[in-house]
Design goal:
Layout: H1 8-12, H2 15-40, H3 46-58, H4 63-81, H5 84-103, H6 113-132, H7 141-152, H8 156-171, H9 177-199, E1 204-210, H10 214-224, E2 230-235, E3 242-250, H11 252-265, E4 270-276
Antiparallel strand pairs: 1-3, 1-4, 2-3
Length: 290
């Protein structure tokens, strides 16, 4: 009896895989925050950044404890306004971040402020990206951002940007300008790293092929490359002749094979490639429901 391995979609929706992403991501984020940020007086942005600012200002509680306290009203609100699956996974991510923030008390040993900002951004961004690759999040702003997006169509990224602007403006009252600038560098690098982690293994290429042999090309794509293709109806702008355009979605690995296949069948074909980040449905990723 052969053992069937789960498909990519089945794995992405499995409970254990999502818990792994949330656990590993929260550990990585907490390591960056506790191992670098707190030793240099940085803010990480978001709710954890707010927790750090409160800790710097009051000295009471730990950053992780402040993070937990700030999340309580957000999750009470989220219970009534977001999907149960997203809520429960995010609750797990928030509690894991709090736990790791309490137990991880080490120092990476980075002394240069700029290097520390870069390293903290990479580590925290990678951790945040891993959590967002799951069906939940690390809590904090994500819960509120999803709520605002569903109720008033406010962009998730836009809300985070506005919140961080307010946070860093407020931090100028108690923090040195050098630390605020270093924190901004850290947050920028974290956001770039997070985007790269989210796009990892998700990047796709949309390919349009204009050829007189579109039917043969479409047939070869489905049979030889084992991927879907759609034939679109078009018309030449100059000649006015009807044309069939083959559209297919592929990845970087298959792209060269697809190119070779097309030009083998028609050396005069027009081969257009566009980058795309999100492809949902059919045999690709399933939609993340909040």
């Amino acid at each position: 009896m052969s053992l069937r391995l789960p498909s990519r979609q089945e794995l992405a929706y499995s409970v254990w895989w999502n818990l792994f992403l949330l656990t590993a991501g929260s550990a990585l984020f907490a390591a960056g925050a506790q191992g670098i940020a707190v030793h240099h007086g940085f803010l990480t942005g978001g709710v954890y950044g707010t927790a750090l600012l409160l800790w710097y200002g009051t000295g009471g509680f730990s950053p992780a404890a402040w993070y937990l306290l700030l999340n309580v009203p957000l999750f009470v609100l989220g219970w009534f306004c977001v999907g149960r699956r997203f809520f429960l996974y995010s609750l797990f991510g928030m509690l894991a971040t709090t736990l790791f923030g309490e137990v991880l008390r080490f120092d990476f040993g980075i002394t240069d402020q700029f290097y520390a900002a870069v390293a903290c951004g990479v580590v925290c961004g990678a951790g945040g990206g891993m959590m967002l690759r799951s069906l939940g999040s690390g809590g904090g702003l994500d819960v509120v951002a999803v709520l605002l997006n569903r109720k008033w169509n406010i962009g998730i990224g836009r809300f985070g940007f506005v919140f961080n602007c307010v946070l860093f403006t407020a931090s100028l009252a108690t923090m040195q300008i050098d630390l605020v600038i270093a924190s901004l560098i850290q947050v920028f690098i974290a956001s770039v790293t997070l985007e790269h982690v989210l796009s990892l293994f998700n990047q796709r290429k949309v390919v349009f092929i204009i050829s007189d042999r579109s039917r043969a090309i479409s047939s070869e794509i489905t049979s030889a490359l084992k991927q879907g293709a759609t034939v679109l109806q078009g018309r030449g702008g100059y000649s006015g002749d009807n044309r069939e355009i083959v559209m297919t979605v592929t990845n970087n690995v298959q792209l060269k094979r697809l190119e070779e296949l097309v030009f083998t069948l028609d050396a005069h074909a027009l081969f257009i490639v566009e980058n795309t980040f999100t492809v949902l449905g059919a045999n690709f990723a399933r939609r993340k429901v909040y």
